[in-house]
Amino acid sequence: MSYIRVGTMNTKDNKINRNGGIQEDGTNNAKLVSDIIKEKEFDLLGTQELTIKYVNELQRFLPNYKFYGNYRYGNVLARVMPYNENNQIITKQNVLECKTIWLPWVANNFPDLKTSIVKMSIMPRIATIVVSEDEEHRKVCMINTHLDYQVPSIQVRQLEALKKIIQKYSLYDIILTGDFNMEIGDKSFSLFVNDTKDKLQHVDVDGVTWHGVNGEETMVDHIFVPKNWQVENTEIIDLKGTSDHDAICVDVRRR
After folding, report:
1. Number of C-beta neighbours around residue 59 at 10 A
2. At what angle do helices 152-168 and 110-118 cross, to 10 degrees?
3. Which of 20, 106, 147, 181 is 20 to 30 Å apart from 122, CA to CA?
4. What value does the CA radius of gyration of the chain take, rounded to a whole number of Å?
């Protein structure tokens, strides 16, 4: 067996990061985050809320890594559309296939559609899918996503879409990462964990990863790994004030 290091990281789409990550005092958020990525030596890292200028800065500091995945409104409009984020997967592995797809994101009933509009959560939600191989040509499929945060019915439809993606790529070992905007005790998320347990295991991490402005704290970032892989170590990583999330790092042994 050999181990693989997997991570998930919501980098925070705010004004500073949207403009490249330079704080007023000159601190470079992209440099801080890239230092963490290099220190942890991730094999596969799923990200959320990356924007084009921030990606450009990260790539400058991470020349040995490649970034995979398109923006929710497409790459052509990446510079001008507000909240045109991506869920890029960052890796050194050889990537054989990459695609970014829309998940269901428009409510299918008027009350929920109204909620989406009022709370300004109506925007495309995406999943980035990468098939990669290591130096020994062992393949893995990684799915990275960021789900709706306001409307439970949309979340349910997005989870159903993820199950179909998992089934489509079921010939591969599958890793699933992302900001699900749901806790492990959430009914819909618990059902998803149960429905995918024949293929995936949810990695239990002790602690919280999201820190709200009013003192709220919760665990909404999650990692799933193949059922037959052995989890060796888990870690919550402080992103040093660059985000309202902490990152998760997981070491697993592949069989």
Report:
1. 15
2. 100
3. 20
4. 17
